[in-house]
Write a structure and sequence with these properties.
This protein is an alpha+beta fold and 182 residues long. It is 36% helix and 19% strand. The chain has a four-stranded mixed sheet. Strand 1, helix 2 and strand 2 form a beta-alpha-beta unit. The protein starts with a helix and ends in an 8-residue tail after the last strand.
């Protein structure tokens, strides 16, 4: 879902062209007021979405509300890292995309902890992608995938370096028995 009718029309058209329209449902909706019954989903994902929203914490609260006990929420966002200036500089020189972020264009683990405060969830943070996308694009898909796996494996275990990756991966686990247990 998306709050923009135009984006929903684009998603429907992409699904038609991709041959999976019959397995997808699209609708206009607001992430701050999800039109779903509480505890109705086993998985919720928001990849690269939270930083576009005016109130990402409210959206996380809504996602936690609609999760069944034992269910999960997944998100991937740009990490608030001291090395972000390198990425911003390369994007000014060689833009790869036009970013239209909201008031919080980057996410930190402290923000995630604040969003989760008082919610019936446990959270896990991981960090990935230590190389600028400009370098990865030059390598091609096979080379980029290989180098990403290698650098993520090596650098994600080094204290002081592991948290400077370009992406922060967020997983929330709603407390309670797993949906499969019932």
């Amino acid at each position: 879902f998306d709050i923009s009718k135009k984006m929903i029309r684009q998603a429907i058209e992409s699904a038609r062209h991709g041959g999976y329209h019959d397995r997808a449902t699209f609708f206009v909706g607001d992430g701050n007021q999800l039109a779903f019954k509480s505890e109705s989903f086993e998985y919720v994902q928001a990849y690269g979405v939270l930083h576009h929203l005016p109130n990402p914490g409210q959206t996380v609260r809504e996602a936690a509300r609609i999760l069944k006990p034992g269910a999960r929420f997944f998100a991937k966002e740009g990490n608030k890292t001291p090395l972000r200036g390198i990425f911003d500089w390369t994007m000014r020189l060689f833009p790869l995309w036009q970013e239209e972020a909201g008031p919080e264009p980057l996410v930190s683990s402290a923000m995630v902890e604040e969003w989760c405060r008082g919610l019936p969830v446990d959270h896990q943070i991981a960090y990935r992608v230590y190389l600028p996308p400009h370098l990865l694009n030059v390598l091609g898909n096979t080379g980029a995938c290989w180098l990403l796996r290698l650098t993520d494996l090596l650098l994600s275990h080094i204290p002081g370096i592991r948290t400077v990756a370009g992406l922060i991966l967020i997983t929330l686990y709603k407390r309670g028995p797993s949906p499969e247990a019932g």
